[in-house]
Design brief:
The chain is of the alpha+beta class. The protein has one domain: 2-Layer Sandwich (60s Ribosomal Protein L30, Chain: A), CATH 3.30.1330. The protein is built from 3 helices and 6 strands. Helix 1 runs parallel beside helix 3. The longest helix is centred in the middle third of the chain and has 18 residues.
Amino acid sequence: MNAPSPHRIVNPESMLPARGFAHAVVAAPGRTIYLGGQTAHRRDGTITATTIVEQFDAAAANLVTALEAAGGRPQHLVSLHVYVTDAAAYRAALSDLTPVHRRHLGRHYPAMALLEVAGLMDPAALLELVGVAVVPA
């Protein structure tokens, strides 16, 4: 899971140190995989997870499942958007989210954004992950 990224991570020294994200990623030539929004939905369409950490765990597992089914691996992610209904709750849970992120995505941090939204398609969803990966040629 902790394979190095084949992409060039760019974090300029003149900018805020990148912790838990990358400022920019230069993707290696290859196949691009666009991942649809993944929530904590189970196969039967239900969401049983009730906390932001539990939902991130399930959504990240779903994201990796879709990515691997398309021929990619977590280290191929170049971009990840995290949509949440409560950004303050997400920030408060960061110390608990870090090991969950590492379990599913390794220590590789793509270019990331955290976006607070008024709601998601399923009202029980607290977050949704949308990613882009490039599998090197």
